[in-house]
C-alpha cells in the first residue's frame, strides 16, 4: 500500500467529491433505475441500461476516492521551507527558448491541474525540478523535444 502524497486542500477536495457522490449522486441514480424499471421490459430499455452504466461509473469512482483517501499522506506546505525544490513548492521558471515565465506548484497526482498551475510530483517537469535550487537550469524531455528552464524563484505558499 503506497501512500498518496497530497496537500490538505487536495484531501478536502477529494472528501467533498466523495460526500457528494455518496449523498447526492447515488440516491439520484437509484431513483433513475427505479423509474426506468417501471417502464417494463428491461432487455430493450435504454433508459435502464444508461442508469445502470451511470451507477457503475459512480460506484467505481467512490471506491477509487475511498482508496486514495485511506492511503493519503497529507503534507502541510505551511510547515515547509528552504530553497531546495520538493513536494509543495511553488516554482517560477523561465523558458530559455521563448523567455516565457511559468509558475507551477508541485502537488500529488490526484490534485494536479495544469489550468490552475499545479503539476503532479510524477510529471517529467516536477521530477526534473525536485532537489534543484533557484538559479539552476533544468532540461526536460517534452513531447516536442528537450526544453530548458531556468529556476528563478522557489516559494512555499
UniProtKB/TrEMBL annotation:
Matches recorded under PROSITE patterns: GREAB_1 (PS00829)
Swiss-Prot/TrEMBL keywords: DNA-binding, Elongation factor, Protein biosynthesis, Transcription, Transcription regulation
Superkingdom of origin organism: Bacteria
Molecular function, one GO term: RNA polymerase binding
Family matches, as InterPro entries: GreA/GreB_C_sf, TF_GreA/GreB_CS, Tscrpt_elong_fac_GreA, Tscrpt_elong_fac_GreA/B, Tscrpt_elong_fac_GreA/B_C, Tscrpt_elong_fac_GreA/B_fam, Tscrpt_elong_fac_GreA/B_N, Tscrpt_elong_fac_GreA/B_N_sf
Domain annotation Transcription elongation factor GreA/GreB C-terminal: ranges: 82-155
Domain Transcription elongation factor GreA/GreB N-terminal: 4-74
Protein biosynthesis keyword on record: yes
GO process annotations (BP): DNA-templated transcription elongation; regulation of DNA-templated transcription elongation
Chain segments annotated as transmembrane: none
Region (Disordered): 37-60
Similarity comment text for this entry: Belongs to the GreA/GreB family.
Biological function: Necessary for efficient RNA polymerase transcription elongation past template-encoded arresting sites. The arresting sites in DNA have the property of trapping a certain fraction of elongating RNA polymerases that pass through, resulting in locked ternary complexes. Cleavage of the nascent transcript by cleavage factors such as GreA or GreB allows the resumption of elongation from the new 3'terminus. GreA releases sequences of 2 to 3 nucleotides.
Designated name of the protein: Transcription elongation factor GreA
Species assigned in the record: Bradyrhizobium quebecense
Amino acid at each position: 500500500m503506497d501512500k498518496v502524497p497530497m496537500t490538505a486542500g487536495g484531501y478536502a477536495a477529494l472528501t467533498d467529491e466523495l460526500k457528494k457522490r455518496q449523498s447526492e449522486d447515488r440516491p439520484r441514480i437509484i431513483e433513475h433505475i427505479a423509474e426506468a424499471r417501471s417502464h417494463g421490459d428491461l432487455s430493450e430499455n435504454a433508459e435502464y441500461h444508461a442508469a445502470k452504466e451511470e451507477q457503475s461509473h459512480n460506484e467505481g469512482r467512490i471506491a477509487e476516492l475511498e482508496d486514495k483517501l485511506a492511503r493519503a499522506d497529507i503534507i502541510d506546505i505551511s510547515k515547509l521551507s528552504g530553497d531546495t525544490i520538493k513536494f509543495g513548492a511553488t516554482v517560477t521558471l523561465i523558458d530559455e527558448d521563448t523567455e516565457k515565465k511559468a509558475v507551477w506548484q508541485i502537488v500529488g497526482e490526484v490534485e494536479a491541474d495544469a489550468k490552475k498551475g499545479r503539476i503532479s510530483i510524477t510529471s517529467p517537469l516536477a521530477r526534473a525540478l525536485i532537489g534543484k535550487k533557484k538559479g539552476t537550469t533544468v532540461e526536460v524531455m517534452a513531447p516536442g523535444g528537450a526544453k530548458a528552464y531556468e529556476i528563478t524563484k522557489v516559494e512555499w505558499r
